[in-house]
Amino acid sequence: MAGELPESVRIREVGPRDGFQNEPEVIPTGQKVRLIGMLADAGLKRIEVTSFVRPDVIPQLADATEVLAAIEPRAGVTYSVLIPNRKGLENALPHRDSFHEANFFLSASETHNRKNVNRSIEESLKDLKGTIGEASSAGLRCEGVISTSFGCPYEGEVPPQRVFEIARALSGFGCEEVAFGDTTGMANPRQVRGFFERAREELRGVELTAHFHNTRGQGLANVLAALEGGVNSFESSFGELGGCPVPPGATGNIATEDLVSMLEEMGVATGVDLEKLIEASAAAQQALGRPLGAHTLVAGPVDWAPRR
């Protein structure tokens, strides 16, 4: 029932893809693989590890095949990759044994979609129809990701009905899950709750996932609103890594350790060992040579032990 908090949530960690792709210095493959292993050791069961984008567009992810070859299979851990188009799927499928899910994306606003992938929404959907169908036939669980679901930095308001129409199309193509991205942190809690209450009615049978950015400091408030709107699936990035590469000023995703800390304090189980997750973020911070934005990385877990 909307308004009640779930007993547990599913978290997809997107830092190794969404987070790393925004880093200006190329991270060695070995360090990426080590950090992915630390995230799995922390109890994260869903990890987006890389993307099959053109290397000249995002050099950081040019080692996608090497990462997939090197990561260690873990019982109960699902690895996913981001697929930009049909060519990306063709490049990914030879490595099918190393990952379990494929994530496909487009924007809910025409301007952002053109700036991001140089296509209209209609053109993106036309390509995705066949690409998702092929991925599903290959035994991959498919997720559709809709950027700018809560607002566009170029067009402003994005009508929720347009977002739901795109989501229905993705579901029809074979996506079992649809993630709604607050790509530049424009969402507010009241908007989010209403959005997901409607989404639950209009998209029955589809796993609804919330993907918030903390651009304006409202990321965790939007998580609570999504929980109250009936959502129990989230995407986040350790260390608050990431951001949208298209418009300036679009800072990182909500931090996984901040998300886990808040949820566990509210009695919502995540299955994640917060101490080990903080160790992973600290290792990423050291590898990147700069402070990361996660609050829990600095403050640590809440300590309820009495002081004397």
Summarize the structure.
By secondary structure, this protein is an alpha/beta fold.
**Mind telling me which CATH architecture this is?**
Alpha-Beta Barrel
Shape: globular
CATH superfamily: Aldolase class I
Count of DSSP E strands?
Answer: 8
Characterize the structure shown:
- It is a single chain.
- This protein is α/β, with parallel strands linked by helices.
- The chain has one domain (10-299): Aldolase class I (TIM Barrel, Alpha-Beta Barrel), CATH 3.20.20.
- Helices cover 41% and strands 15% of the residues.
- The chain is built from 12 helices and 8 strands.
- Strands 1-2-3-4-5-6-7-8 form an 8-stranded parallel β-barrel, surrounded by 8 helices.
- It is globular, with a radius of gyration of 18 Å.
- The chain starts with 9 loop residues before the first strand and ends in a 9-residue tail after the last helix.
- The mean pLDDT is 95.
Annotation keywords:
single chain; 308 residues; alpha/beta; TIM Barrel; 8-stranded parallel barrel; 8 strands; 15% strand
Secondary structure layout:
Elements: E1 10-13, H1 15-19, H2 29-41, E2 46-51, H3 64-70, E3 78-83, H4 86-92, E4 101-107, H5 110-117, H6 121-137, E5 141-147, H7 160-173, E6 177-182, H8 189-202, E7 207-212, H9 219-228, E8 233-236, H10 256-265, H11 274-288, H12 295-299
Parallel strand pairs: 1-2, 1-8, 2-3, 3-4, 4-5, 5-6, 6-7, 7-8
